[in-house]
Design goal:
The complex is a heterodimer of chains A (530) and B (717). By secondary structure, chain A is mainly alpha-helical. Chain A is built from 22 helices and four strands. Chain A has one domain. Chain A is 74% helix and 5% strand. In chain A, the strands form two sheets. In chain A, strands 1-2 form a two-stranded antiparallel sheet. A two-stranded antiparallel sheet of chain A has the order 3-4. Chain B has 717 residues and is mainly alpha-helical. Chain B contains 29 helices and eight strands. In chain B, helix 17 packs antiparallel against helix 18. The longest helix of chain B is centred in the N-terminal third of the chain and has 49 residues. Chain B is globular. The termini of chain B are far apart. Classes of the chains: A mainly alpha (530), B mainly alpha (717).
């Protein structure tokens, strides 16, 4: 009987359970909030509010950890890494007309599911210092987790689109409501900078996705279905592929973000609370790269090949341009944000080489960036929580007071620099090796990023950590506490383990990537034969 | 068992800090040093087994990266080349660990220092025992990290932090080339494993670069690199050599090494003299088979090496900081090693690497003892008469000096062995090889010989200058120091003794193995010589046995023996390590030239510094142009700062403010926003809790849009 249950779960509902589990947590918090005791003025009593806050934190932690446990269980028990096709597929009729609710994972998406569930509890832990509107904050994060998991699990284009666009909203709120202080002129109005950043984030990403929606409609009309697997088998006419590719590109390029549509990212990062930056860097950016691999390459192979040089150009510009810009930054978060853009440049470059090193390297780079840049934003958060500024010049000589922090920060700085032995190296190196195969110019220019990343990352570390401890505010700064050590330590273990032994991750990618490359090459060959 | 020779220092690095917490700094020092001692003993055993006993082998631990045909293992490759390096690295590292117990005894950060030293040793061992290019790169970057950490060890000092970053970034410039070289190897061979790659070149196997329609024998293969067609091996060799230039501080990429002297002196001895900086030489020797069939790349190596040997020696003439003198001397000696490798004398290059490790570590640690004794004074002009204060240190430094200047008797052989210090034996060998290369028509052979002789004159001059000004003559030290020099503890002196013995006798003791009659057997194929493989008898056996090691049929052609068409150029191989050198005929003056160079340099130094006031102006007077040129190190730092560093920062700022800010944002979101300012004004309310309304509106909007789409266009089915 139990076996039967397990089997039916395995074949049907695990991914939905996983995806919507955090949403249940969000509902629970909302329910508790709704039942709050209110005073005569209609405001929630302070005492009850404190209790609600505690409940919200606990529930959020329980459900994110729960999602992590479920995802690991599903992966270990039901996922077959040697199989390249979609697994754990669920299929429910929904709107009709070829539109259904379909979920499933393969080697390209499964590790991002795990990355998401792994990073989320860390984000909740990192939000300890949030005091404003705690229940809403936790709800936003839980909803966001559901939406992100949905993005990586969806096997129907429309379902994907809903999740993809939906994930914008909680992030928009997190930046706009819980962002930092400061005022910014925008459109002739002065408003809080966090709101400027949130709107900029929204404008960019929404604008990108409008085109994608139109493309989705066209594809649905052409193929009569929005089933991703079916669309991947559909040979779209070469002329149409171009337009479709561009439409999808507009959306994913903004998400990555690629140069020149990257300027929302530094602002968003700077304004977002620490946990928001972590999710943004560790997961949300990956949706762009994931989109290229799930849609652009398999569905529009001819256009992808045609536009590849264009992508290389943008990627190389991103790597060099943003690395140089990072050199000039005075704000810690901006510096790391720009370095993120540079690192994502390696991803897009790798993906469009169509080689196994390029694609697996790009995937790996995304995964590794999730650990390393997530951790770097946490590192900045550690300082921000203590001193309340992100200005590099406000620090100096912290190593004297914070030896443990110095060690952790150094580790992730080296990861950011791409030191071999840390996961950052593997992806960067593989993508460049793949690029060299296609055209040595690409690798040549990309390799400049190797020099520049050392320059900006070490400059940051030196100015914050080394030198004499002279500033009054820093004299009593405490070292990292147990909570911070656990958060950063977990990320460090993964970054190190994947740096020394990346094989397990690469082995998971390989079957699906091989399949992708095979059909990509076949499509190109067929197009060439015509 | 073998992996322990690499792993023991790693254990030390990991344990140092925890042990210090429990048992105090002394416990950490003892544990790390003891672990290094064990590794050192094991290294000598392995040397006896692998190099002397001929038991080369590779132990693969586990796969590191595997992506498509991109594959690399973690491995311990033991052949003579790596065994030599194991011995050098572990011996010097052990002695430096021990020495540091004394040198660093009053530093609060000792456990950290020992952790870094052990970490460095681990990375260096990974480098030398790699069986593929990727692990080599791991070690390469790892030693860079350790070097960065140790140069900046005294992190309160701005100059130390600057120097640390400079070392890392300049090295990265070299790594830029190195990484491209690795990609190039991967692209051409479809493999990064030394066995497969080198045997393909050795057998001239047919290789097919990725995506190419047809393969070609590797030695004739041309590839397109940056839109130009190049000889494949030349491209690879040059790119790899750029990496070597960075790590080994060769001309143009040397600027970080003198600054690196900001680190504690034991670091300078270990990393910036005996081991890390020689990694570039090791790399060229490891890839000897590439350079043998890429004469243009080899010529570049010769040119750069000889230029460095000369350039660094000129700058060394005028330095007053005791460590900087030794640093430029190191730079110059590395130049010798490179041009030796460039002319194909890999055995001589490795031999000089080996002997240099002894006498240069000795000189550095001796200088450290002086600095320690003189209360952290490094300016030799402020010293004088130190001989009477530190007699034993003086003796050891003189031993180091006669070794580096190359004291010995040319042409004399007792029992087949030359008579002279370690530096004499290896340096003479290099200079003779350069001359032989010139005779054979190799590019820059005579150039290297001539500059090498000139550099030898200067080496003798600046080395003795250091001794004369520091140790001899009247004392210029303050009374307090003169009366109470710091005691130099025994733990700082006994590590110098084995180094001194090596500086004196290592040349004679290992002559036969490295470059003499036993060389071919000793190196056992770890170094490659085209000339060795030119005879048909060699081909059939070697070609087949190497070819068998190449499993990937897609990339390794069925070259076998017929691909072995040796070009005439291959016969110019000169006197590579595997050759019996005595058979070559040199004019007498060539054999004696290094000797007279040494005598002349020593005499000039004595003439200048032993008569009257040692600080009186010499041939080069302050205020003169040549003086300023040398004193400012040929102005490299200024030129780079002007051409590269400042522009990079300025461009970064420009792109940020004008590119991102004014152009992209100005046209994009900000521009759009100002046109819809009115609506923007309302959005301000977002902060006051209306966010949810907007979110709701958005959701509704999307839902409406989708609904609209499906009802309106639903008829498509």
């Amino acid at each position: 009987m139990n076996d039967l249950l397990a089997e039916s779960l395995a074949s049907q509902h695990w991914l939905s359970l996983l995806t919507f589990l955090p949403l249940v947590g969000a509902a629970a918090i909302a329910l508790r909030q709704a039942m709050a005791r209110r005073g005569a003025d209609g405001e929630i009593l302070a005492k009850d509010q404190a209790q609600i806050d505690t409940v919200a934190r606990t529930v959020a932690m329980l459900f994110t950890v729960g999602a992590f446990v479920v995802s690991v269980f599903v992966y270990v028990a039901y996922y077959d890494p040697s199989f390249g096709g979609y697994q754990l597929v669920e299929h429910i009729e929904w709107l009709g007309g070829g539109v259904s609710y379909k979920m499933g994972v393969d080697g390209i998406s499964i590790l991002f599911v795990l990355l998401t569930t792994f990073v989320m509890p860390i984000c909740i832990a990192a939000s300890k210092t949030i005091e404003k509107r705690v229940p809403e904050y936790m709800i936003a994060f839980l909803v966001m987790e559901t939406l992100i998991l949905g993005v990586f699990c969806a096997l129907d284009l429309l379902v994907f689109y809903l999740f993809f666009e939906g994930s914008l909203i909680p992030m928009f709120l997190i930046i706009g409501v819980w962002g930092s202080k400061g005022v910014k002129e925008f459109g002739g109005v002065s408003m809080p900078s966090r709101v400027y950043a949130a709107i900029k984030f929204f404008l960019y990403t929404l604008l990108g996705s409008v085109f994608m929606l139109i493309a989705i409609l066209w594809m649905w009309r052409y193929a009569g279905t929005t089933d991703i697997h079916a669309l991947q088998q559909t040979a779209f006419p070469a002329g149409a592929q171009k337009w479709l590719w561009v439409a999808f590109f507009a959306s994913f390029a903004v998400k990555m973000p690629m140069w020149p549509v990257h300027t929302w990212l530094p602002d968003a990062h700077v304004q977002a609370p620490t946990a928001g930056s972590v999710v943004l860097a560790a997961i949300l950016l990956k949706m762009g790269g994931y989109g290229f691999l799930r849609f652009s390459l398999p569905m529009f192979p001819i256009a992808s090949a045609d536009f590849a040089p264009f992508v290389y150009a943008l990627s190389i510009i991103a790597i060099i341009y943003t690395s140089l810009v990072a050199l000039a930054q005075e704000d810690m978060k901006k510096l790391i944000a720009y370095s993120s853009v540079a690192h994502m440049g390696f991803v897009t470059m790798g993906i469009f080489t169509g080689t196994s090193q390029g694609i697996e390297g790009g995937l790996f780079q995304m995964l590794s960036h999730g650990f390393i840049s997530g951790a770097l934003f946490l590192c900045v958060g550690v300082l921000y929580d203590r001193i309340h500024t992100r200005e590099i010049a406000a620090y100096g000589g912290l190593v004297h007071r914070m030896p443990f922090y110095a060690f952790l920060f150094l580790f992730f700085t080296m990861g950011n620099v791409g030191l071999p032995g840390v996961s950052g190296f593997v992806g960067e190196f593989l993508t460049m090796a793949g690029a060299f195969k296609v055209n040595s110019w690409i690798a040549f220019f990309a390799a400049f990023g190797v020099i520049l990343s050392a320059a900006y990352a070490l400059r940051l570390y030196r100015q914050v950590m080394y030198g004499e401890l002279t500033k009054d505010k820093l004299m009593a700064i405490p070292d990292v506490d147990a909570r911070e050590i656990v958060m950063l330590g977990l990320l460090m273990i993964f970054a190190l383990a994947l740096g020394v032994y990346p094989k397990p991750a690469l082995d998971v990618f390989a079957p699906s990537v091989d399949g992708l490359i095979a059909s990509f090459d076949a499509a190109l060959a067929a197009a060439g034969a015509h | 068992m073998e992996p322990f020779v690499v792993l023991l220092p790693l254990f030390g690095a990991l344990l140092a800090m925890p042990i210090a917490r429990v048992g105090g700094p002394r416990a950490a020092e003892i544990v790390t040093t003891a672990l290094l001692g064990l590794a050192c003993i094991q290294a000598w055993f392995l040397f006896a087994d692998v190099a002397l006993g001929g038991n080369a082998r590779t132990i693969s631990l586990f796969t590191w990266i595997s992506s498509g045909d991109f594959f690399a293992d973690w491995a311990v490759r033991l052949d003579t080349l790596s065994a030599v390096m194991l011995v050098v690295v572990n011996t010097v590292s052990f002695l430096v660990h021990a020495y540091s117990i004394g040198y660093m005894h009053d530093d609060g950060g000792r456990p950290r220092f020992f952790a870094y030293l052990s970490l460095f040793t681990f990375a260096m061992l990974c480098l030398v025992t790699a069986d593929n290019f990727l692990q080599l790169f791991f070690g390469w970057e790892g030693v860079g990290l350790a070097s960065y950490l140790l140069i900046g060890f005294w992190f309160k000092k701005k100059s130390a932090n600057d120097a640390a970053i400079k070392a890392f970034v300049v090295n990265r410039v070299g790594d830029f080339g190195f990484a491209l070289g690795i990609f190039c190897v991967f692209y051409v061979f479809g493999s990064l494993r030394f066995d497969e790659v080198f045997s393909a070149v050795a057998t001239n196997g047919v290789v097919t670069p990725w995506g190419a329609s047809a393969g070609a024998p590797i030695r004739e293969l041309t590839i397109t690199f940056l839109n130009w067609d190049f000889h494949a091996l030349t491209v690879m060799s040059v790119l790899l050599f750029i990496g070597a230039m960075g790590k080994s501080a060769q001309f143009l990429l040397h600027t970080w090494l003198p600054d690196a002297m900001e680190g504690p002196t034991p670091v300078s001895a270990l990393i910036h003299a005996a081991t890390m900086v020689t990694a570039g030489v090791f790399l060229v020797c490891r890839c000897s088979v590439f350079f043998e069939y890429a004469p243009d790349a080899a010529a570049l190596v010769t040119l750069v090496g000889a230029t460095t040997a000369f350039f660094a020696a000129t700058v060394g003439l005028l330095q007053d900081d005791i460590k900087k003198i030794v640093a430029y001397s190191t730079c110059s000696q590395l130049g010798y090693m490179f041009f030796a490798a460039g002319v194909g004398a890999y055995g001589a290059a490795m031999f000089h690497l080996f002997t240099h490790a002894f006498f240069k570590a000795l000189l550095f640690l001796g200088s450290g003892a002086v600095i320690h004794g003189m209360h952290h004074e490094q300016d030799i002009k402020k010293m004088g008469g130190v001989k009477s204060l530190l007699p034993l240190t003086h003796l050891l430094m003189v031993v180091g000096t006669i070794a580096i200047t190359g004291v010995g008797i040319p042409e004399l052989k007792i029992g087949g062995l030359p008579v002279g210090t370690a530096g004499f034996v290896s340096k003479d060998m290099i200079l003779e090889s350069a001359f032989a290369a010139g005779e054979a028509g190799k590019a820059f052979g005579y150039y290297a010989f001539a500059l090498g002789i000139l550099a030898a004159v200067m080496t003798a001059f600046y080395s003795w200058r250091l001794i004369f000004i520091t140790f001899w003559g009247p004392s210029r030290l303050p009374e307090a120091v003169k009366k109470h020099p710091h005691d130099v503890p025994n733990v700082m002196l006994w590590p110098l003794v084995p180094l001194a013995i090596g500086a004196l006798f290592a040349g004679m003791a290992f002559y036969k193995d490295f470059i003499g009659s036993n060389a071919a057997q000793f190196w056992n194929g770890a170094l490659y010589s085209a000339a060795d493989h030119a005879s048909p008898a060699h081909e059939s056996t070697d070609g087949r046995s190497h070819g068998a090691g190449a499993p990937d049929a897609a990339h390794e052609g069925t070259a076998g023996g017929e691909g072995e068409r040796e070009s005439a150029g291959a016969h110019e191989g000169g006197n590579e390590g595997g050759h019996e050198n005595e058979t070559l005929e040199f004019p007498g003056w060539v054999l004696w030239a290094p000797f007279w160079a040494m005598v002349f340099g020593t005499g000039a130094a004595a003439f200048q510094y032993l008569r009257g006031d040692p600080l009186k102006p010499g041939l080069l007077r302050p205020g003169g142009m040549i003086y300023a040129f040398l004193k400012n190190k040929w102005y490299f730092d200024e030129i780079y700062d002007f051409l590269l560093v400042k522009p990079a920062l300025a461009i970064g700022r420009f792109l940020w403010i004008d590119g991102d800010g004014k152009t992209i944002d100005g046209v994009g979101p900000d521009g759009i926003a100002s046109t819809v300012a009115a609506s923007a004004r309302r959005i301000v309310k977002v902060q006051s809790g209306y966010m949810y309304h907007y979110a709701f509106v958005m959701l509704v909007g999307i839902a409406a849009l989708i609904t609209f789409i499906f009802f309106r266009l639903g008829g498509a089915q």
